[in-house]
Amino acid sequence: MQPEVHQNAGVIRQLRPSDLPRFRAHLLRLDSESRHDRFNGAISDAFIDRYADRSFHEGATVIGYLEGEQVLGAAELHERTDLPEPTGEIAFSVERHRQRQGIGAKLFHRLLAHAHALGYQRLHVTTHSDNRAMKALAKRFGAELSFGVGETVGTITLDPNGWPDGFLLEPGPDLFSVTHL
Fold first, then answer.
1. 96, 118, 99: which is closest to 107 by C-alpha?
2. 141 is in which domain, residue-wise?
3. For 65-121, what is each residue's pLDDT tens digit?
């Protein structure tokens, strides 16, 4: 896939191994509320250092929204080998000054297309119960939500023969665009 140019003059593309420092810096720049939204709780800088290294060294797919050399948003796909069918865990982060500009939706869309191309059958996203933006985004992309104590879990089932239920994959100016049915 070619990088897609976003209206804020940013680019959405898969991050390379050499982008690890940029990804780590992005996670470290998240304000406390955005960190809480991303990790479902308070976490330390040391945790983020280990997490970023582990993500890149254990084969996670990380797609970034970049402006210049800075990663300002990221979508992650972590394989869940502990589950019987091809299943992934997905996560998203966008820095505060770039939130509510459609970047999360573009990242979500790009990650779903990538997961579909890799043959994943099911994706899980977990967020705390107060993260309305993530719950709305997950629902927009076909997640079935279930609610537990203090958290919400979304499951997206990917059809190996087509796009997730309720969506069409169509050619578009950014390589593909999604149309909600």
1. 99
2. 4-180
3. 999 999 999 999 999 989 888 999 999 999 999 999 999 999 999 999 999 999 999
CATH code where residue 80 lies = 3.40.630.30
CB neighbour list of residue 161: distance below 8 Å, 6 or more residues apart: none
| Structural domains of the chain, count | 1
pLDDT digits (tens, 9 = 90+) for 18-49: 999 999 999 999 999 999 889 988 899 999 99
Say which residue the tokens 């979508």 belong to: 75
